[in-house]
């Protein structure tokens, strides 16, 4: 992880807890992440590990009874770190958050129909976003709308402006949603499983489109997926999540070639890799525990083949910089600078 990279968003010890009748559900339980200008942070993990709730926290759209704690610092372009604002301190329904959401930070979802209203044309919806964030002038908004549809590779953009979401194919709808997200030139784009519902060819086109936009506009991308292949293709840095916590965080090459956390290693062993010596694929035994009333210690303890009784299940495990820019949450991992607390 290059130290000179400009950090534009930083999450510090962010927690999202849902206070339910049955107890406290710790969907996100103290994560620290950094988003760099023009780079993609991939967030990967099994279903239920808190990926989507993390992005909801960033946009301040966590539904009730969720409560968000910690710090989410947004650093405005060209300004020093000191001039950042903490999104958690803002009123989630206030003007400032609404301006940031869909303006500086935009989101694309797995299912584009969620992002569009079925009763308004694509053009009206894109123009509405532009009028809200970029210009007051309707003609200008129309022109920008057509331009952005062209940019995301829509054929006949003028015609598309007058069409309704259901008239577009799945891939075109995805492009239209990306166009809407990009219409205000966001500095951060959150993509939550944006291609899962698409067939492979269209999936490749949409991923390429996101990469082109990132390269051309210096947009930072937070790419959320459970698919390690997509992570490898899209990310500069990767955060591996397990049970509401980041368990490993480093650059993509280090993650794939020198993973340290037993969970990351198990995830990598469970996918077929082209060019890797064929060895038996292993699935991770057991299931992710439900994030409520959890026992003390490492969240992966119950499924970890290396776990040591009396060590890993005693106290909560901190995220430690095991090597420069390589953060791991495991007591059995040796750090380069200090002696390990325990050897595996
Ligand atoms: N509105 C809510 N109320 C209560 N619990 C919730 C709510 N939203 C999410 N959760 C819980 O928070 C945990 C994390 O959910 P989240 O959707 O972030 O997981 P995920 O990693 O994105 O999973 P997937 O890959 O299946 O989308 C889960 O246990 C989920 O049941």
TrEMBL record:
Keyword field: ATP-binding, Cell inner membrane, Cell membrane, Membrane, Nucleotide-binding, Translocase, Transport
Membrane topology of the entry: Peripheral membrane protein
Gene3D superfamilies reported for this sequence: P-loop containing nucleotide triphosphate hydrolases
GO MF annotations, alphabetized: ATP binding
Residue ranges of every copy of the ABC transporter domain listed in the record: 9-268
PROSITE patterns: ABC_TRANSPORTER_1 (PS00211), ABC_TRANSPORTER_2 (PS50893)
Localization per Swiss-Prot or TrEMBL: Cell membrane
Origin superkingdom: Bacteria
Pfam families: ABC_tran, oligo_HPY
Protein name per the record: ABC transporter ATP-binding protein
Organism: Paenibacillus alginolyticus
């Amino acid at each position: 992880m290059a130290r000179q990279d400009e950090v534009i968003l930083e999450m510090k010890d962010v927690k999202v807890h849902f206070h339910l009748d049955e107890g406290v559900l710790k969907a996100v339980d103290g994560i620290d992440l950094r988003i760099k200008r023009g780079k993609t942070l991939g967030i990967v993990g099994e279903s239920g590990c808190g990926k989507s709730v993390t992005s909801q926290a960033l946009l301040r759209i966590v539904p009730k009874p969720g409560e968000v704690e910690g710090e989410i610092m947004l650093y405005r372009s060209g300004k020093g770190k000191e001039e950042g604002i903490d999104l958690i301190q803002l009123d989630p329904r206030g003007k400032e958050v609404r301006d940031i959401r869909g303006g500086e930070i935009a989101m694309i979802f797995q299912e584009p129909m969620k992002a569009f209203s079925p009763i308004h044309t694509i053009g009206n919806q894109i123009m509405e976003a532009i009028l809200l964030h970029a210009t007051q002038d309707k003609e200008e908004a129309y022109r920008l709308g057509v331009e952005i549809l062209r940019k995301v590779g829509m054929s006949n953009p003028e015609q598309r402006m007058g069409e309704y979401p259901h008239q577009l194919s799945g891939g075109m709808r995805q492009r239209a949603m990306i166009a809407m997200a990009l219409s205000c030139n966001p500095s951060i784009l959150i993509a939550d499983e944006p291609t899962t519902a698409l067939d492979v060819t269209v999936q490749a086109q949409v991923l390429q489109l996101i990469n082109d936009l990132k390269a051309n506009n210096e947009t930072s991308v937070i790419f959320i997926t459970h698919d390690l292949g997509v992570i490898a293709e899209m990310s500069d840095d990767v955060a591996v999540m397990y049970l509401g916590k980041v368990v490993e965080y480093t650059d993509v090459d280090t993650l794939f070639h020198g993973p340290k956390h037993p969970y990351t290693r198990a995830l990598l062993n469970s996918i077929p890799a082209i060019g890797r010596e064929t060895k038996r694929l292993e699935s991770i035994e057991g299931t992710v525990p439900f994030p409520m009333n959890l026992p003390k210690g490492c969240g992966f303890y119950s499924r970890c083949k290396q776990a040591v009784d009396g060590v890993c299940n005693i106290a909560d495990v901190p995220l430690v910089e095991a090597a420069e820019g390589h953060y791991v949450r495991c007591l059995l991992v040796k750090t380069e600078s200090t002696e390990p607390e325990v050897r595996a």
